[in-house]
User: Which sequence fits this backbone?
């Protein structure tokens, strides 16, 4: 395996206004990188900056699903510098059966989950020094379809193909990787967990004292969503203190735990292993290296 010898100076993290993106931005700032955090909401990015403190976090208000947003991000990135990029921003898209799926809903999912990472990478490529790294956030749905999550699974399968294609195209210049964070305690889960009391999510939050961090980018559906019970079961299995353990456990994982995993992949693996597979946070073989 080729040794990793690049001293990274800069990070670009999409979806940095909350959840996994916020936690990873904080972890990379702690490692000394200047982090350009991208999000659609100025207030959320300001909150991220306040939580991180210091002068290492640089907010960029932009929507990665649009050409204008991607252009605004690329315009803020100056010079050619050893950089790590985390394509974290995503949406579940429409949930439910094929009969309820609309063309606009499907296209919006693809715009966020596939076009966003792909064409943002294209816009950033002239500013990524040799040895830079790009990490795609993957999921089990990239390898297997799930009833009721057609748009999401199709988009993540396409993103996995993008990672594999770019990994081979840019071998020796820029490293491309992919990683599955598992099911994480963020507000994206709101649309995936069965509603309690018939109307709200409050009792679930109180029962498990989970701090939900991402404003949901989920198109809600009714309780006929096919695998809602699966996600509800994960929430039920989460320890009463919340998802805060150092390694993945039964139930929901924590954004901070995922951030440690992503920082390990981006900064500590060698070039060959970074891109060799779609890394899974649940694989115990690598826990001793980062957890």
Assistant:
């Amino acid at each position: 395996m080729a040794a990793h010898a690049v001293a990274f100076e800069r990070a670009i993290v999409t979806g940095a206004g909350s959840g996994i993106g916020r936690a990873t931005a904080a972890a990379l700032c702690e490692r000394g990188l200047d982090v350009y955090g991208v999000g659609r909401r100025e207030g959320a990015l300001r909150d991220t900056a306040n939580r991180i403190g210091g002068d290492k976090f640089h907010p960029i208000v932009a929507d990665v699903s649009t050409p204008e947003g991607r252009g605004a991000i690329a315009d803020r990135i100056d010079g050619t510098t050893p950089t790590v990029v985390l394509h974290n921003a995503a949406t579940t898209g429409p949930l439910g059966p094929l009969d309820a799926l609309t063309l606009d809903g499907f296209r919006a999912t693809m715009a966020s989950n596939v076009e966003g990472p792909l064409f943002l990478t294209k816009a950033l490529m002239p500013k990524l020094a040799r040895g830079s790294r790009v990490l795609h956030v993957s999921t089990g749905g990239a390898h297997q379809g799930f009833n009721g999550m057609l748009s999401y699974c199709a988009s993540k399968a396409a993103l996995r193909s993008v990672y594999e294609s770019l990994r081979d195209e840019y071998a020796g210049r820029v490293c491309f990787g992919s990683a599955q964070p598992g099911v994480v305690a963020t507000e994206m889960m709101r649309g995936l967990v069965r509603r309690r009391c018939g109307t709200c999510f409050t009792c679930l939050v109180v029962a498990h004292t989970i701090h939900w961090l991402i404003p949901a980018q989920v198109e809600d559906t009714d309780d006929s969503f096919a695998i809602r019970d699966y996600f509800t079961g994960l929430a039920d299995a989460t320890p009463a203190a919340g998802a805060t353990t150092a390694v993945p456990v039964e139930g929901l994982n924590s954004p901070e735990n995922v951030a440690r995993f992503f920082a390990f992949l981006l900064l500590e693996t060698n070039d060959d292993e970074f891109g060799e597979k779609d890394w899974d946070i649940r694989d115990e073989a690598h826990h001793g290296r980062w957890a």
